[in-house]
Amino acid sequence: MHFDSDYMNLCHPLILKRMAEVSQQSFSGYGNDSLSQSAQEQICRLCQSPEAKIFFLAGGTQTNMVVIDALLRSFEGVLAADCAHIAIHESGAIEFTGHKVLPLNHNNGKITARQIDDYVTSYYNDPNWEHIVEPGMVYITHPTEYGTLYSLNELEEISNVCHRHNIPLYLDGARLGYGLAALNTDVTLPDIARLCDAFYIGGTKCGAIYGEAVVFSNPQKANRFFSHIKRHGALLAKGWGASLQFDTLMRHFDDPSRYANQTKDTLYFHICRHAINQAMRIREALLQKGYTLFLDSPTNQQFINVSLQKAKELGNHITYGQWEPPKDNRITIRLATSWATKTEDVDQLINLL
Amino acid sequence: MHFDSDYMNLCHPLILKRMAEVSQQSFSGYGNDSLSQSAQEQICRLCQSPEAKIFFLAGGTQTNMVVIDALLRSFEGVLAADCAHIAIHESGAIEFTGHKVLPLNHNNGKITARQIDDYVTSYYNDPNWEHIVEPGMVYITHPTEYGTLYSLNELEEISNVCHRHNIPLYLDGARLGYGLAALNTDVTLPDIARLCDAFYIGGTKCGAIYGEAVVFSNPQKANRFFSHIKRHGALLAKGWGASLQFDTLMRHFDDPSRYANQTKDTLYFHICRHAINQAMRIREALLQKGYTLFLDSPTNQQFINVSLQKAKELGNHITYGQWEPPKDNRITIRLATSWATKTEDVDQLINLL
Amino acid sequence: MHFDSDYMNLCHPLILKRMAEVSQQSFSGYGNDSLSQSAQEQICRLCQSPEAKIFFLAGGTQTNMVVIDALLRSFEGVLAADCAHIAIHESGAIEFTGHKVLPLNHNNGKITARQIDDYVTSYYNDPNWEHIVEPGMVYITHPTEYGTLYSLNELEEISNVCHRHNIPLYLDGARLGYGLAALNTDVTLPDIARLCDAFYIGGTKCGAIYGEAVVFSNPQKANRFFSHIKRHGALLAKGWGASLQFDTLMRHFDDPSRYANQTKDTLYFHICRHAINQAMRIREALLQKGYTLFLDSPTNQQFINVSLQKAKELGNHITYGQWEPPKDNRITIRLATSWATKTEDVDQLINLL
Amino acid sequence: MHFDSDYMNLCHPLILKRMAEVSQQSFSGYGNDSLSQSAQEQICRLCQSPEAKIFFLAGGTQTNMVVIDALLRSFEGVLAADCAHIAIHESGAIEFTGHKVLPLNHNNGKITARQIDDYVTSYYNDPNWEHIVEPGMVYITHPTEYGTLYSLNELEEISNVCHRHNIPLYLDGARLGYGLAALNTDVTLPDIARLCDAFYIGGTKCGAIYGEAVVFSNPQKANRFFSHIKRHGALLAKGWGASLQFDTLMRHFDDPSRYANQTKDTLYFHICRHAINQAMRIREALLQKGYTLFLDSPTNQQFINVSLQKAKELGNHITYGQWEPPKDNRITIRLATSWATKTEDVDQLINLL
After folding, report:
1. How far away is chain B from the Cα of D11, in angstroms, using its nearest Cα?
2. Which of A93, B333, C136, C153 could form a disulfide linkage to C72, CB 3.0–4.6 angstroms apart?
3. Are A142 and A110 contacting, i.e. CB atoms less than 8 angstroms apart?
4. Is the pLDDT of residue D258 over 80?
5. Closest chain D residue by Cα to residue A325
């Protein structure tokens, strides 16, 4: 039983079915095809953003580096939580493009409008500002690396402060499906499209073999994005391989031919909601059995702080993520569910806890 | 009927079958999985290169930029034919990594050991050599952008001159299958592994949805390649998505469980040979009907020079690639077959010619 | 006696005199000082370009890389003669900034408006243009690497074609003084300012210890140039060290306090004209004595094709530049004069010829 | 009276004298000249490092970016204090070369061997290390940005831990003269050469017009450094312009022809000691008059925390550096002396305090 991450299973069966259906057809390369167009239309409709520009890339790190490099002027940096993926786990891919990541202290993975405002205001008040990297955009993750979510109010405040300072807001939605499908969130896909200049809808962790859908809800920011993709070596020759997966995920799950306007009707939401349900069962069991939650996550990643002894016992039966190095004989571990998690595996996990 | 390129169909049905088989299983991320290990073993065996290091990336431009950036020191450039993909059609992706492409005049897409030797010798004889980009590696394509092939003797000479000058030889095998399956080639996969320091076996154009297998037959050159991949944003979270495709393509085609030592036994060779057979049928018809071949290609790309009138007529029935801009009322076009080309489509094409 | 290059002597004595005068004064750093302001005003006046923005950098390669990187969008390249300094002798410094140099065949160091027009037009007509580096600016040298000069008419045509295609024109004036002081040129500094978006007035080769003055006669192109300089590590802490040299060179040579509106009145012109006079003496002697000029240069660099025997003889008495490697027992060499060349050395050289 | 920085005066008069002496001579370009050789020999001797390789560059940011880029492999980052120049005031010049700056919390500008050890050890213990930028070198400043100094013992510990982990140690000596000339320091130039793999001796802030001398006391680390300089556009055509300044500064100050083995005999030490003496006079006066030192600095930069009212009063008579933004009606300011500070200006400053 595997609970170490949410990218351990290939893809939802409907995607393979769809692939089989189109495998006899020929398509033009580089995203100039009917499947890409269809997937783009679905996403525009679900985002209530008819003017949005949509592009499909292979993976998350790549998406972050291409979008950030495209949105920034060469002498600008990107503001992000100090725990953000781009600040830590992407091996300097952002710096490879020549840009500095400007870290802000995170609170359970999140940053605030106030922090952004303070940073940018201080920057321009600094007599030496021209000698310091200029903050040129804001990067947030939703859900965060800690599984937490921004509230609609928090997102609106961040969006306001960004636009007041005239810097774009970009949201990394590697796990966006698990954020949208969380039980008590008040943030919808159209909210995200309205509040961010650009974001991506994660495929790799939410049912696809590979693929992330970049959405420029502010279409002016998409200017020459094709050239940026190409120059980063990120253009997929068979663009439709990625877009058909989104075309499948973004349709109504029990009747793929019916166009849906509500994310909740989509296969994407449906399978991510399953992951949330399983995660909530684990969370409840943890609380009942007296475990110490490392923090309160409403999404598919649950973090607990356990004794090394307990961690070792669990390790005999399941795989999990080691989140922080052991300290004082205790360790923080991550239990992740996904669209593919089996209910019976969660049953067994609960018994083991 | 589509003859414009060889990346217009998703993938061979056996790949989708294999995907369905593993879709219930969980795998570790980032290439640490049993499918990647199996595919690596297959490729080592077929290359007769037990020590080779194998990595799987998503696409060709990406593969070129990561490998070239990894093999070069920061102040070095890469020698390549002036018509090479990296010199023209990759939108400056190599320059994005900070390296210059040093062009050599091509002859039907190929360069010679003599040209390389002359360039490197002149370089070190130039009193200003330290002010000029140093040639740090050689890049060749096989088949070339013009569909032509190196002979074993030519490859051996190029390899010798590279190693005499102590610079690595890298072969871009985006269409390698069509090269190996050509009718009169004397170059085998073990030859390529023996003569090149690194090369890649193209998947995207030869039966896979996506994926290129980088082979460091000189394993020392693979030092820290994982870090290079990661930093370029090119690491696939679900590495097994690409490797299972190679694991399928590199097995014996009618009995996937049997390990084969001969490329000729593999699904990869089998489906590429089909493309060659269809291309040779087209070539013969062209010659019979008095067309002017732009050059003599033994692989899946056939180039002809036709009147604009004829080109327009063909365009009513088939799609083709426009190779060079029209001149003097004539135009050079490309007819490409692939593993997916239907025999009956070629029948019809021949009737149209 | 040294005739190998024009950067073998420190600087004109008036510069050292000026340095001594200001060495007791304190100045603000990073170009915010009265000397920089004065030098900028002088240059604006001489260029008849009151709105121009002027910056002082240390050397030529650095200037080229910062200006080119600032003028181009990240996915664009720079059109240049294939013999241009940026294409050959700058060790990939342009590629280091991520940009490709797009070479055009040179004719005695020059390129034509027609070549630029053809390249750009073909580019946008190419169905694959988005896969190819976009031409984003034009770089020319004046004088060229071969000592030749553009005529006013040629410059106007190049400027027109650039602006018609909406790409900036940048002129590398490492030896600009020797171009302006040539005997029969019809190109003046105000012409260059009017026709180019940006250019630099070379100091290092024309009387200064170090320093090049970048002129954005199109001031919009100077947007955020300070940040570009800083990020390239090219900002001089003591900016006035470079600007006082230009402030000295750009004043009337026999009365440094009098502002001059004509380049011809300046110390810069005066000392460069001396180099031209000496070069013309050499040229005449060469013609009289039956030497084969490699090409006809009106500036301070003279190229001749001599037997290896003759070259060796000369080498016993003078130093010269080896321009092309020996071939068929003959070799092309460069004899360069400079602002510091002594008349009596030229006398002796003429005797030796 | 100017106390805002230590780079407000052109250069020591002996440098201009030396320039005048050589201005009639011709020298080869790019550092291949007798003055550069002489300066290199002087520095090797003073460092007691006969095998050291020495290079002369124009400025500090440039030196940092070229050295760091040369010492790191492409996927590595540089450990530095979070207040370090490269982490803040160099506008992303390090990131421009593709490398991440990995910040450590500073203590009065310094970092410790323990911090480095902990960081590197944790890094390799992290199961995700391959996804995180690898620490590839350590950067320290001496004196630090806060004017503080490492003790010999601290430097030895840092050197040991670096070499135990097999990563090079690089010391930024922009103000090295003021560190060597401090009154109670136990660190000498040979110590620095012995303990660091590379460092630079600052010229711009210590008596030169421009110029920093990079010393690779570990000569293997200098491999191909010329090519790195060139590619960064940092090669000075007239290399001797910078090296003659070091040749002057590094000689015995009252008899420039006598070679000295002790830094203390050099003009460099002599003029920096003057700055220290003046700074200590200011420091004593501050303490006597009851000012609050922001921290205890033994070098030419003194930091005090004063009321805004007092700062305004001082501002009527002198210039100073604003170090931190005002807070609670108080502000931290910097008073910097230099080799050029006049004793009578310090007298007056003391009266004003």
Report:
1. 31
2. C136
3. no
4. no
5. D126
**CB spacing of B89 vs C122 below 8 angstroms:** no
B98 and C100 in contact by Cβ < 8 A?
no
D235: nearest CA partner in chain B: B131
Q: What is the dihedral of CA B134, B140, B146, B149, to 10 degrees?
A: 140
Residue A218's pLDDT is: 95
Q: How far is A245 from chain B (nearest CA, A)?
A: 12
Q: Do C209 and D19 touch (CB under 8 A)?
A: yes
Q: Is the pLDDT of residue A344 over 90?
A: yes
Instruction: Name the minimum distance, in Å, from the CA of D340 to any CA of chain A.
Output: 24
Report how far residue C175's alpha carbon sits from residue B29's, in angstroms, rounded to the nearest whole number: 58
Token representation of residue D352: 């004003």
Question: Could you give the ipTM of this predicted complex?
Answer: 0.96
Residues ≥6 apart with Cβ < 8 Å to C104:
C79, C80, C81, C82, C111, C115, C116, C119
Query: How far off is chain D from A94, nearest CA to CA, in Å?
Result: 8
- C92 closest CB neighbour out of B77, B128, B325: B77
Closest Cβ opposite residue B91 in set C89, C96, C131: C131
CA-CA distance, D14 to D12, in Å (whole number)? 6
Q: What is the pLDDT of residue A127?
A: 87
C-alpha to C-alpha distance for B94 and B97, rounded to whole angstroms: 5
Structure tokens at A25: 């057809």
- Report pLDDT for A323: 86
Smallest CA–CA distance, residue B16 to chain C, in Å, is 30
Whole-number percent of chain A with pLDDT over 90: 93
Which residue from D90, D91, D131 is facing A91, i.e. has the nearest CB? D131
Amino acid at B9: N
CA distance C240 to C30: 8
Q: Do A10 and B210 make contact, defined as CB atoms within 8 angstroms?
A: no
Q: Which residue does chain A place closest to D61, by CA atoms?
A: A131
Query: Nearest C-alpha of chain D: how many angstroms from C192?
Result: 25
- Residue C352: phi and psi, rounded to 5, are -75, -25
Distance CA A65, CA B233 (A): 7
The stretches in chain B having pLDDT less than 70 are 254-260
Q: Which parts of chain C have pLDDT scores under 50?
A: none
- Note the pLDDT of residue D263: 85
Q: What is the Cα D178 distance to its own chain's centre?
A: 9
Q: What is the mean pLDDT of residues A145-166?
A: 98
Q: Residues A75-95: pLDDT tens digits?
A: 999 999 999 999 999 999 999
Q: In this predicted model, what pLDDT tens digit does every residue of A207-243 receive, in sequence order?
A: 999 999 999 999 999 999 999 999 999 999 999 999 9
Q: Which chain A residue has the Cα nearest residue C223?
A: A73
| Residue D25 zone, left/alpha/beta (φ > 0; ψ -120 to 50; rest) | beta
Which residues, 6 or more positions from B302, have their beta carbon under 8 angstroms from its beta carbon?
A: B147, B279, B282, B283, B286, B293, B334, B335, B336
Contacts of D130 in chain A (CB under 8 A): 91
Pick the residue of C227, C232, C235, C236 with the most A CBs within 10 A to test the interface with A by mutation: C227
* Res. A265 pLDDT band, cuts 50 70 90: confident
pLDDT at C166: 97
Closest alpha carbon to C59 in B144, D20, D230, B227: D230
Is C134 close to A227, i.e. CB distance below 8 A? yes
Note if the bond before A13 is cis, omega within 30 degrees: no
H or E segment and range at residue C305: strand C301-307
What mean pLDDT is predicted for residues D280-296? 95
Cβ <8 Å between C100 and B95: yes
How many A-B residue pairs are in contact by the CB < 8 A criterion?
A: 147
- The predicted structure's pLDDT at residue A116: 98
Residue D257 reports pLDDT greater than 90: no
